[in-house]
Specification:
- The chain is of the alpha/beta class.
- The protein has one domain (about 1-185): Metallo-beta-lactamase, Chain A.
- The chain has helices spanning about 35-40, 80, 90, 160-170; strands at about 1-10, 15-20, 25-30, 45-50, 70-75, 105, 110-115, 115-120, 130-135, 140, 145, 150, 175-180, 185.
- It is globular, with a radius of gyration of 15 Å.
Length: about 190
């Protein structure tokens, strides 16, 4: 699997473009902003799907640039996606429009997109609908897990107790590569 890391926006959110050699499609995870940078990373590939780890504005700001792409999101964050107060977009001064999610993801669901097999892990804590996406030995953790830290729980939908449970759960995947929503990737230990 080819993983392109595209840091976007003022908060340098890691947007990921996943693709397989020989295919003309790709999956985007968390297109936070800077649509032109994401499109450059895609090259000639078509967007098979956009996977959102949660509904905060810094992970969704470039959705408008991919009007035909299906959007996958946990149902607990569907309202957050289009509500500027819940997504914290209003606080950040971000007025870009957000499309509604077209598909729901839930715990244990397996997605087959662009030739990839993607497992959904519901990891609430940062928001009620936070998920991680496991692809082979790689886990895309959004704002649940960072290198040496975890996501904040003081924003709408945050819950410190749930975050502790989600972190414990991710420790089951020790030895796998984790690709966070911000910062550098790491090995889960």
């Amino acid at each position: 699997m080819n993983i392109q890391i595209v840091p976007v926006g003022a908060l340098e959110t890691n947007c990921y473009v996943l693709s397989l050699e020989g295919r003309n499609d790709a999956v985007i995870i968390d297109p936070g902003d800077d649509a032109d940078k994401i499109k450059a990373a895609l090259g000639d590939k078509q967007v098979a799907a956009i996977l959102l780890t949660h509904g905060h504005y810094d992970h969704t700001g470039a959705l408008y640039a991919f009007p035909d792409a299906p959007i996958y999101l946990h149902p607990n964050d569907h309202e957050m996606l289009t509500n500027p107060l819940l997504s914290v977009a209003k606080w950040a001064g971000d007025s870009k429009p957000r499309r509604k999610a077209t598909h729901t993801v839930v715990e244990g669901q397996v997605l087959k997109l662009a030739g990839l097999v993607i497992q959904v892990l519901h990891t609430p804590g940062h928001t009620q609908g936070c998920v991680c996406y496991a692809v082979g030995n790689d886990i895309f953790t959004g704002d649940t897990l960072f290198d040496g830290d975890y996501g904040r729980t003081d924003l709408p939908g945050g819950d410190a107790g749930q975050m502790r449970q989600s972190i414990r759960r991710l420790l089951q995947f020790a030895g796998r590569h984790a690709y966070p929503g911000h910062g550098t990737n790491m090995i889960i230990q």
